[in-house]
Design a protein that fits this description.
Layout (H helix, E strand, L loop, with lengths): L1 H14 L3 H8 L2 H4 L18 E6 L5 H14 L2 H4 L5 E6 L2 H9 L5 H4 L7 E3 L4 E3 L5 E6 L13 E5 L7 H11 L7 E6 L5 H8 L3 E6 L10 H11 L3 H6 L15 H6 L10 E7 L12 E7 L5 E6 L7 H14 L4 E5 L6 H9 L5 E4 L5 H13 L3 E3 L4 H7 L14 H15 L12
Parallel strand pairs: 1-7, 1-8, 2-5, 2-6, 6-7, 9-12, 11-14, 12-13
Antiparallel strand pairs: 3-4, 4-5, 9-10, 10-11
Helix pairs in contact: 13-14, 15-17
Length: 439
Amino acid sequence: MKNSYRQRTLKTFIDGLNKQQLDFHNNWWELWAREDQLPPKTDAQGNPWLTWLILGGRGAGKTRAGAEWVRSLAQAPKASYEGTHRKIALIAETFSDAREVMVDGVSGILAVHPSDQRPIYETTRRRLVWPNGAIAQLFSAEDPESLRGPQFSAAWCDELCKWRYGEAAWDMLQFGLRLGKNPQQVVTTTPRPMPLLKRIMGAKTTVISRASTHANAANLAPGFLQTVVGRYEGTRLGRQEIDAEILEDNPNALWQRDVIDQFRVRMCPQLTRIIVAIDPPVSSTRRSDACGIICAGIDDLGHGFVLKDETCHAVRPLEWARIALRTYHEFEADALVAEVNQGGDMVKTIIAQVDAGVPVKSVHATRGKWVRAEPVAALYAQGRVHHVGALAQLEDQMCDLTGDGKSGGRSPDRVDALVWALTELMLAREAGPPRIREF
């Protein structure tokens, strides 16, 4: 009854506003924001904070919080900050993410501005320019060196836990935060148990906000809440992706994160052979499992290097075939390896429709997923497999793969492709002729 009364009162209030008043209230962020979406005043010691870390589940509203924070800095009266927040860095996993999510997204910077106050996006210079002279420059965490040289008074880092070269990109950013009296940075991310995130959380100058997906339920599609949230709530994956919990390793999993981290590398040496492995989905619908696509190589010492995870949710087989072939040509691979238990010769036929000249080796699963993966996990324990950069989603699956052959309650498509790739490169009797190349 109380909520119904409030809704009627709110409707009466809104109906009585003219367009100018509606626009004002619609863009009054402090009126609509939750407490966890508003920047803190100080850190725990009562000093100005350096890092505001917003940990949120999927759809929790963390992007909106980041965009509104940038807007507040760019549009703040000059006297309130003495011109110190005119240079802002916007950093995402890739340039595409920075543009599509942070700038043009439904909760991005352009969307949170009134139409007559929006900055102009300069495509060639990859930056936003406000009428008052404030500038926000876009960067990709894939290229940490691009942050060497520029200087900023503020930064917004989105989905930091997905950054492949997170440590390097973060460190370069810290050197560049040197303008003004109190440079600050906001990090918006769904958490993962990675060393960089734990380091940021442990800093005295970091203030942490948390929000689950449920906190923003009023702004999410009912179908999303019913299907996605309903399906994963209560699972380990759900606790991470919905409740924004930082989960330690599953003690029953085949892989442990500290082992992967211990042997991770930034670059790989010359490789003698490169494979792209495919674990195709059983069916071709929007609810099908993803198509696992992993690229890996081996050097002349017999060490394996996992180069890229291109796993995708493709509705049509030709879509995942094109992605696999694009990866094949990007890394100048020697062959495609594809599991054909479900599709038989169908996989080779689909690949041939796109590029008939690419060799495809068929592999058949005769044992369970756990049994197939055990010899590959042993290679990791021996320090013979190295991830080139961070492969967050793959590593999440690896560190939750248990004896039932599932990860996060689902088929581990990424892990399946990884196992096929490393089995072919490092465990198969005939590895094929070596071919030295630099990568």
